[in-house]
Amino acid sequence: MTSSPEAILLVGGKGTRLRPLTVHTPKPMVPAAGVPFLTHQLARARAAGIEHIVMATSYLAEVFEPYFGDGSALGLHLEYVTEEEPLGTGGAIRNVASRLHSGPDDPVLIFNGDILTGLDIKALLKTHRTAKADVSLHLTRVADPRAFGLVPTDETGRVTAFLEKPQTPEEIVTDQINAGAYVFNRSVIDTIPENRPVSVERETFPNLLSAGAHLHGMVDSTYWLDLGTPQAFVRGSADLVLGRAPSPAVPGRCGEHLVLGDAQVAQDAKLMGGTVIGKGARVESGARIEGSTVMDGAVVEAGAQVTDSLIGAGARVGARCVLDGAVVGDNANIGADNELRAGARIWCEAVIPQGTIRFSSDQ
After folding, report:
1. Is residue 310 classed exposed, middle or buried when 0-12, 13-18 and 19+ CB atoms within 10 A define those classes?
2. CA–CA gap between residue 136 and residue 131 (Å, rounded)
3. Distance of CA 336 to the CA centre of its chain
4. 242-268: pLDDT as tens digits
5. Angle, vertex CA 304, rays to CA 361 and CA 259, nearest 5
6. Which of 27, 32, 49, 155 could be bridged to 237 by S-S, CB 3.0 to 4.6 A?
7. How many CB atoms neighbour CB 156 within 10 A?
8. Are 304 and 319 spatial neighbours (Cβ–Cβ below 8 Å)?
9. How far are the Cα atoms of 233, 278, 303, 312 from residue 331, in angstroms, in the given order?
10. Whole-number Å distance between alpha carbons of 200 and 94
C-alpha cells in the first residue's frame, strides 16, 4: 500500500499532426507558456498529491530524462520506461506496471501527454473510491462529439457503453466523451495482455464492461483541450498565459504576454492574446504578435504581423510579413513581405525568398 496514489503518464506518441514542431522534439516537450508542455501536467499532478510518476515513452524517448531527471526539482519521483515497439495506450500502461509499488486495490492515475485540462484530479480519485469502481474515467462534454469516443453513463455515473466516433444523429446518444484521464485499480492493469499492442479505448474498456466490471464516469467540464494540432497547441499555450487554463508551472504572472529570459522586444511592438516570446528571441519595431508562440532565439522583424501562429526556435520572420494560423519550423527563414495563412506550415530549415507567397484581398 502506497501513501499517495501513483500515476502513469503516456508520452509515447509521435505527434505526426504537429509536424514540423515534432521533428526534433517529442510532442509533450514542445514549449507551452514557456516550458515543455509536460511540465504543466507534472506540476498539476504534484499539486494533487501524486508523488511517483512512471513515464511511458517511445518516440524520441532519450529527450525526457535529461530534462526532468529524477523529478526531484518538481517534488516528484520520476521513472522512465521506453517501448521498443509501439504498444498503444493499453499496451503502454501494461508495459510500465512492474515499476508501480501499489497494492491490487490501490488507485493508479493514468493521463495522456497531449491533453491540457483543468481536471480536478483529487475529485476524480475521490469519486473512484466512493463509487468502489474498477476503473474511473474523466468525461467532458463537447458540442460536436463526432470526432471522439462517446461514453454514456446511467443516473449513478456508471458507464453503460463505449461508442467510437459516431457519425449519424441516431448514434450520438450523449455529448460525453472520453477526456483521456483515468483511475485504474492496480489489479485491473495486471489483466491487460503483455507484449502486444492494446487500445484501452477499443479493447480494454469494452472488454471490462462486457465482463461486468464497474466502470465509472466523472463529468468534469472545466477547461479541456486536445493539443494534437498546431492550432490547438498555440491556443493552449495562449490560454495558459492568459490564465484560462490552470497551471502552477507558468513561469511568470498570467496576462496578455509572457517574455522569457533575455528576449528583446522593441518598445513599440505589440504583444497580446497570451503571446509567448522565448529566451534570446527578438521582436523588432512595429511588430504585432497576438495569441502566438515565438520560440527561443527566433526573430520577428520590423512591422511583421503574427496571429495565432507558432515560430520555431531560431527561425526568422522577415519585415512586414503577415502570418495567420501558420507554423514555422525551427531555423526556417521567411523573407520579407510574405503572407502565410490558413494553416500554412513551413518546414525546419526552409528558406522562403522575399515576397514569394502573397494572398489577394478576396481570398
Report:
1. buried
2. 9
3. 33
4. 999 989 999 888 899 999 999 999 999
5. 140
6. 32
7. 8
8. yes
9. 19, 14, 20, 7
10. 10
Query: pTM of whole model > 0.85?
Result: yes
In eight-state DSSP terms, residue 183 is E
CA angle 114, 117, 119 (to 5 degrees): 130
Q: Which of 327, 310, 96, 138 is nearest to 226 (CA)?
A: 138
- To the query of whether residue 132 is one of the catalytic residues in this protein, the response is no
DSSP string, 61-127: GGGHHHHHTTSGGGT-EEEEEE-SS--HHHHHHHHTGGG----TTSEEEEEETTEEE---HHHHHHH
Quickly count: other Cβ atoms within 10 Å of residue 336's Cβ.
Answer: 17
CB atoms < 10 A from the CB of 14, how many? Answer: 14
What grid cell was written down for 359?
494572398
pLDDT digits over 99-146, tens only? 999 898 999 999 988 889 999 999 999 999 999 999 999 999 988 877
**E strands along 296-362, which residues?**
299-300, 305-307, 310-311, 316-317, 322-324, 327-328, 333-334, 339-341, 345-346, 351-352
Q: Which three cell numbers stand for residue 321?
A: 510579413
For residue 326, what are the CA distances in angstroms to 227, 292, 322? 16, 10, 10
Q: Cell digits for 262? A: 533575455
Please say whether the beta carbons of 110 and 127 come within 8 A: no
The residue annotated as part of the active site, out of 14, 126, 165, 270, is 165
